[in-house]
Protein backbone atom coordinates (compact mmCIF):
# COMPACT_ATOMS: atom_id res chain seq x y z
CA UNK A 1 0.00 0.00 0.00
CA UNK A 2 1.38 3.40 -0.85
CA UNK A 3 -0.12 6.82 -0.33
CA UNK A 4 0.54 9.06 -3.31
CA UNK A 5 -0.61 12.38 -1.83
CA UNK A 6 -2.19 13.75 1.28
CA UNK A 7 -5.88 14.55 1.09
CA UNK A 8 -5.86 18.38 1.14
CA UNK A 9 -9.46 18.76 2.25
CA UNK A 10 -9.00 16.88 5.52
CA UNK A 11 -10.77 13.79 6.76
CA UNK A 12 -13.40 12.18 4.57
CA UNK A 13 -16.53 11.50 6.58
CA UNK A 14 -19.50 9.17 6.13
CA UNK A 15 -22.46 9.00 8.52
CA UNK A 16 -24.30 5.68 8.56
CA UNK A 17 -27.46 4.39 10.12
CA UNK A 18 -26.72 1.59 12.55
CA UNK A 19 -28.00 -1.29 10.40
CA UNK A 20 -26.76 -4.57 8.99
CA UNK A 21 -25.87 -2.66 5.79
CA UNK A 22 -23.46 -0.23 7.47
CA UNK A 23 -20.32 -2.40 6.97
CA UNK A 24 -21.01 -2.69 3.23
CA UNK A 25 -21.41 1.06 2.81
CA UNK A 26 -18.25 1.67 4.87
CA UNK A 27 -16.20 -0.71 2.69
CA UNK A 28 -17.42 1.02 -0.47
CA UNK A 29 -16.64 4.43 1.02
CA UNK A 30 -13.10 3.37 1.95
CA UNK A 31 -12.48 1.85 -1.49
CA UNK A 32 -13.54 5.11 -3.16
CA UNK A 33 -11.38 7.27 -0.91
CA UNK A 34 -8.34 5.04 -1.36
CA UNK A 35 -8.79 5.12 -5.14
CA UNK A 36 -8.92 8.94 -5.07
CA UNK A 37 -5.76 9.01 -2.94
CA UNK A 38 -3.93 6.65 -5.32
CA UNK A 39 -3.75 3.76 -2.86
CA UNK A 40 -4.03 0.66 -5.00
CA UNK A 41 -4.27 -2.03 -2.32
CA UNK A 42 -7.34 -1.39 -0.17
CA UNK A 43 -7.85 -4.95 1.08
CA UNK A 44 -6.61 -4.38 4.63
CA UNK A 45 -8.41 -1.04 4.87
CA UNK A 46 -11.71 -2.65 3.86
CA UNK A 47 -11.20 -5.41 6.43
CA UNK A 48 -10.42 -2.93 9.22
CA UNK A 49 -13.30 -0.55 8.48
CA UNK A 50 -15.69 -3.50 8.19
CA UNK A 51 -14.69 -4.86 11.59
CA UNK A 52 -14.83 -1.49 13.35
CA UNK A 53 -18.20 -0.59 11.81
CA UNK A 54 -19.59 -4.04 12.59
CA UNK A 55 -18.56 -3.58 16.23
CA UNK A 56 -20.21 -0.15 16.32
CA UNK A 57 -23.40 -1.60 14.83
CA UNK A 58 -23.51 -4.62 17.14
CA UNK A 59 -22.27 -3.08 20.39
CA UNK A 60 -22.56 0.71 20.04
CA UNK A 61 -25.42 3.17 19.90
CA UNK A 62 -26.72 5.80 17.54
CA UNK A 63 -25.45 6.64 14.09
CA UNK A 64 -22.03 5.43 13.02
CA UNK A 65 -19.49 7.95 11.74
CA UNK A 66 -16.60 6.77 9.58
CA UNK A 67 -13.65 9.13 9.13
CA UNK A 68 -10.73 8.41 6.83
CA UNK A 69 -7.60 10.50 6.51
CA UNK A 70 -3.91 10.28 5.76
CA UNK A 71 -1.67 11.00 8.73
CA UNK A 72 0.20 14.24 8.06
CA UNK A 73 3.40 12.88 9.64
CA UNK A 74 3.84 9.66 7.70
CA UNK A 75 1.09 9.57 5.04
CA UNK A 76 -0.38 6.35 6.39
CA UNK A 77 -4.16 5.89 6.19
CA UNK A 78 -6.13 6.15 9.43
CA UNK A 79 -9.61 4.68 9.87
CA UNK A 80 -11.81 6.09 12.65
CA UNK A 81 -15.24 4.82 13.58
CA UNK A 82 -17.39 6.76 16.03
CA UNK A 83 -20.56 5.81 17.85
CA UNK A 84 -22.38 7.20 20.88
CA UNK A 85 -22.30 4.02 22.97
CA UNK A 86 -20.61 4.07 26.37
CA UNK A 87 -18.99 0.63 26.03
CA UNK A 88 -15.36 0.26 25.04
CA UNK A 89 -14.00 -2.44 22.72
CA UNK A 90 -11.95 -5.19 24.29
CA UNK A 91 -9.49 -7.50 22.59
CA UNK A 92 -10.47 -10.93 23.81
CA UNK A 93 -7.94 -13.69 24.29
CA UNK A 94 -8.04 -16.40 21.62
CA UNK A 95 -10.71 -19.03 22.28
CA UNK A 96 -11.00 -21.89 19.80
CA UNK A 97 -14.53 -22.65 21.03
CA UNK A 98 -15.91 -19.13 20.48
CA UNK A 99 -18.05 -18.47 17.40
CA UNK A 100 -17.37 -14.71 17.45
CA UNK A 101 -15.14 -12.17 19.17
CA UNK A 102 -11.95 -12.56 17.10
CA UNK A 103 -12.28 -9.46 14.91
CA UNK A 104 -10.57 -6.88 17.09
CA UNK A 105 -7.76 -9.32 17.88
CA UNK A 106 -7.19 -9.73 14.13
CA UNK A 107 -7.35 -5.98 13.52
CA UNK A 108 -4.80 -5.34 16.29
CA UNK A 109 -2.47 -7.85 14.67
CA UNK A 110 -2.92 -6.54 11.14
CA UNK A 111 -2.21 -2.94 12.16
CA UNK A 112 0.68 -4.05 14.35
CA UNK A 113 -0.91 -2.71 17.51
CA UNK A 114 -1.36 0.79 16.08
CA UNK A 115 -4.97 1.31 17.14
CA UNK A 116 -6.87 2.69 20.08
CA UNK A 117 -10.01 4.19 21.54
CA UNK A 118 -10.63 7.75 22.61
CA UNK A 119 -13.68 9.30 24.25
CA UNK A 120 -15.64 11.91 22.34
CA UNK A 121 -16.54 15.21 24.01
CA UNK A 122 -20.17 14.77 23.02
CA UNK A 123 -20.24 11.22 24.48
CA UNK A 124 -19.42 7.90 22.96
CA UNK A 125 -16.08 6.93 21.52
CA UNK A 126 -13.89 6.84 18.45
CA UNK A 127 -12.06 3.63 17.65
CA UNK A 128 -9.14 4.22 15.30
CA UNK A 129 -6.56 2.15 13.48
CA UNK A 130 -3.56 3.31 11.47
CA UNK A 131 -2.80 1.03 8.56
CA UNK A 132 0.77 -0.05 7.92
CA UNK A 133 2.66 1.70 5.15
CA UNK A 134 4.13 0.07 2.07
CA UNK A 135 6.90 -2.32 2.90
Helix/strand layout:
Layout (H helix, E strand, L loop, with lengths): L11 E5 L5 H16 L5 H17 L4 E7 L6 E7 L19 H8 L4 E5 L5 E6 L5
Antiparallel strand pairs: 1-2, 2-3, 3-5, 4-5
Helix pairs in contact: 1-2, 2-3
Keywords: ATP-binding, Kinase, Nucleotide-binding, Serine/threonine-protein kinase, Transferase
Protein name: ATP-binding protein
InterPro entries: Anti-sigma-factor_SerPK, HATPase_C_sf, HATPase_dom
Walkthrough of the structure:
- The structure is a single chain.
- With 135 residues, the protein is an alpha+beta fold.
- Helix content is 30%, strand content 22%.
- The chain has three helices and five strands; from the N terminus they run βααββαββ.
- The chain has helices at 22-37, 43-59, 103-110; strands at 12-16, 64-70, 77-83, 115-119, 125-130.
- It is globular and about 40 Å long.
- The protein starts with 11 loop residues before the first strand and ends in a 5-residue tail after the last strand.
- Mean pLDDT is 89; it is low at 1-7.
- InterPro entries: Anti-sigma-factor_SerPK, HATPase_C_sf, HATPase_dom.
- Keywords: ATP-binding, Kinase, Nucleotide-binding, Serine/threonine-protein kinase, Transferase.
